[in-house]
Design goal:
It contains 3 helices and no strands. With 91 residues, the protein is mainly α.
């Protein structure tokens, strides 16, 4: 639900930018944290040992890379909302 609220709020301002920024910070932090925990458990449990290098690069690094870097971008944008109380960083 917070992700849908954030997406709607980005396209049509439905609340103050600072409020939307806090929602975004919490949501994107959770996505980032979950990705780090998943990747750490993948490495610690040795699940990569039965995969080829190309499978690890494509199915693990690329897909997790998206879930690693895009929430960081969301955290940055959300922080700009909180700091400036304005939607100017995305307009």
């Amino acid at each position: 639900m917070p992700t849908i609220l954030f997406l709607v709020g980005m396209s049509k301002p439905i609340c103050h930018a600072r409020s939307l920024g806090v929602i975004g910070l919490l949501s994107f932090y959770q996505e980032f944290y979950g990705t780090c925990i998943y990747f750490l458990s993948f490495v610690v449990n040795g699940r990569y040992k039965n995969l080829t290098v190309s499978e690890v690069l494509i199915f693990v690094c690329f897909t997790n890379g998206l879930w690693f870097f895009l929430p960081l971008l969301g955290i940055y944008v959300s922080w700009q909302f909180v700091e400036t109380n304005s939607y100017n960083c995305v307009l």
